[in-house]
Amino acid sequence: MNDVERLFDIFFRLQAGEYLSKKQLAFDYHVSEKTAQRDFSLLTYILECHSNQGISLAYHQATHQRYLQKANRFGKPDILVLIKILLESRSLNRNETQKLVESLLNLLDKEGQKEVRQIVNSEWLNYSGPYCQVDKIETIWLLSTAIREQKVLTIRYRLPEATKVKNYDVLPISIFFDLFYFYVVVYHSKYEEYITLRVDRIQQLSYSSVKVPKLEYSNRYRDGDVRSFKVDASEGEMIRMRLEFSSYLDVVFDQFPKAKLIQKEGNRAIFEIECQWTWGLEKWLRGQGAHLKILAPQKLRDSFACELEKMRSYYQ
């Protein structure tokens, strides 16, 4: 191995996260420690000449080793939090989740990888993805590309009834995640309306020859605003809801960021909330148990009371 090959080899080892000392280089490459020091100095000079890459050769005082330090890179706490969120969401099958976890860990040096693995190891061993085990990442990317390029797609879509499949020519508008699943909001030109499709139910997609619809400004889908009024992925009637709540206020504010606190006395609070009346809303309301009382609208009170009475009959 000549001098240039040795220098490249050292750099690639550092790039892989190794910590290297002069003594170790001298042993590995059968050179003197003086030569090893010269290699380190040359690498330092080269990296300084390419400082725009955000990489420098750092020195570890305690172990007398050199390692690559990258600017603006994720640290161990960042990677740990991202992996925790990924595992807790259970949004991807085990294979895709493992690929993402490994990609995140590879942003750390070997010691950092080891520490984070030890923390998440038990959680990963017991990881179980969603019931539907299809791969989603590539489909999400293709949909995102179509959104960016404003392309109409022909989508072959499996309906909730497993035996029924439909073809749609639609313009993808927005992708979001909600409770284990990814969804795509699309504009259906034929019916002139927005519909929401679950990504894992898309069996096939391709670019369509259908002309891109021209959406009026007043009819454009504003995903940020819409999501703040929704509890789940389904669409529903907009209502103004008034609740009496007797638990932690953040339970309401976390679910409804735009909720208005009208009154508070002791542990009793009155909220006014604009939201869409969907199955997800009803599920959330039931989940609050005796801490919650619906004050308005009356039709929601009646529907809720009827549902509770039906549930009560199951246990009589």
TrEMBL record:
Which InterPro entries does this one have?
A: CBASS_pafABC_assoc_protein (IPR051534), WCX_dom (IPR057727), WYL_dom (IPR026881)
Q: Where is the WCX domain?
A: 260-311
Where do the WYL domain residues begin and end? 142-205
Identify the stretch annotated as signal peptide in this record.
Answer: none
Name under which the protein is recorded: WYL domain-containing protein
Provide the species name. Answer: Streptococcus zhangguiae
